[in-house]
Amino acid sequence: MSDKKIKITQVRSLIGRPANQRRIMQALGLKRHQGSVFHNDTPAIRGMAFKVRHLVNVEEVK
User: Fold this and answer.
1) Which residues pair with 41 in a beta bridge?
2) Is residue 62 part of a domain?
3) CA pair distance 10, 5, nearest whole angstrom
4) Structural domain of residue 33, as residue ranges?
5) What is the spatial distance between Cα 31 and Cα 51, in angstroms, rounded to a whole number?
6) 3-state SS, residue 5
7) For residue range 15-60, what is the model confidence (pLDDT) as tens digits?
8) Domain count, the chain
9) Do the domain assignments include residue 15?
């Protein structure tokens, strides 16, 4: 298992977004605009971030 981390920051609003995108953001733990969360760098988390890539910024953390 990798111990690499990624930081996901919400940079766009969820207003007017489809329900599936809202659920993904909630599952990632993002609650408000400019909020950030840290997650382990796993394929599941990467996949969720990819689905909402137009709403978030993803950075690798050392």
Assistant:
1) none
2) no
3) 17
4) 5-55
5) 17
6) strand
7) 999 999 999 999 999 999 999 999 999 999 999 999 999 999 999 9
8) 1
9) yes
CATH number at residue 20: 3.30.1390.20
- Residue entry with tokens 């969820």: 14
- Tell me which H or E stretch contains 48: helix 43-51
CA end-to-end span of the chain: 16
Q: What is the pTM of this model?
A: 0.91
What is the identity of the amino acid at 40?
N
Inter-residue contact 11 to 34 (CB < 8 Å): yes
**Contact call for residues 22 and 31 (beta carbons, < 8 A):** no
Tell whether 47 is covered by a domain.
yes
Q: Which residues of 9-29 are buried (b: 16+ CB within 10 A; e: fewer)?
A: ebeeebeeeeeeeeebbeebe
